[in-house]
C-alpha cells in the first residue's frame, strides 16, 4: 500500500504542479480556439492570468509565510541535545552519481546546519534520513550523498546514523523512530526547511516522537516589500509550487491519518 501511495503521489503531482497545470489549461484553450470554441479564450486567459499573478503580486511569499512562521527556533539553544535529525531533500543523488561529486540543491542549508550543530553538540547523535525520494532514480540514495559530503567535511562516519530507506516525510519519521527508539525524556533537534517544518513536526509527533525541537533552516520569505518582489519569475514560480505542495501535503497527511491535525500546535505535547 505504501508503494502504491508513493507512486500515485508522484504521478498525480506532474499534472497538478501549478506551472504544469496552467500550461495544460492554456494548451487546451488554444486547441479549443483553433476548433472554434469560444470557451478556449477563457482558458487561455486563466493560464496567462496565473503567470501574471506571479509577476504582479508576492503571492508566492503569502503562501510560504504561514508555513515558515509556524515554528521558530528556540530563543536560546538547548543546553543539552541528545540527537540531531537532518531530513533529506537537500541533495541531488542523480547528479552526484553522474559527476562523482556531492551535489546540493536550494535546500543546502539542511546539510550545512547539520555540520554546525554536530560541532556545537559533540556528544549528540547525528542522524540523516533520506532514501530515494524521486520516482526515476539511479543507484545512489540521499544518504549515500550525505555520507560522502559529511565525511569530506570532517564528520566521522561512525558518529552518524544514516537512514537510507525513507522516500517521504512520513517514512522519515516512522523509520527513524524504529531505528533509534528514542526515549520520551530525550531532546532531538529536527532540521529541515522552515516551510517543510509544519508537516515534519506533525508527522514526527504522530509517529511517537516526544522530544522533538524544531530547528528550521532554508527560509525563503522576508518581512519587507523588497524581499517580497526581489525574486525573479522562475524563483517565484518555484516557491509557489513548493508552498502549494506543502499545503496539499498537510491536508493529504491528515486525511490519510498520518497526522493528528492539518497544522500542528506550536507547543509540543507533554512528555
TrEMBL record:
<feature type="domain" description="DUF218">
    <location>
        <begin position="82"/>
        <end position="249"/>
    </location>
</feature>
<dbReference type="InterPro" id="IPR003848">
    <property type="entry name" value="DUF218"/>
</dbReference>
<dbReference type="Pfam" id="PF02698">
    <property type="entry name" value="DUF218"/>
</dbReference>
<feature type="transmembrane region" description="Helical">
    <location>
        <begin position="20"/>
        <end position="36"/>
    </location>
</feature>
<dbReference type="InterPro" id="IPR014729">
    <property type="entry name" value="Rossmann-like_a/b/a_fold"/>
</dbReference>
<feature type="transmembrane region" description="Helical">
    <location>
        <begin position="43"/>
        <end position="64"/>
    </location>
</feature>
<keyword id="KW-0812">Transmembrane</keyword>
<keyword id="KW-0472">Membrane</keyword>
<dbReference type="InterPro" id="IPR051599">
    <property type="entry name" value="Cell_Envelope_Assoc"/>
</dbReference>
<keyword id="KW-1133">Transmembrane helix</keyword>
<protein>
    <recommendedName>
        <fullName>DUF218 domain-containing protein</fullName>
    </recommendedName>
</protein>
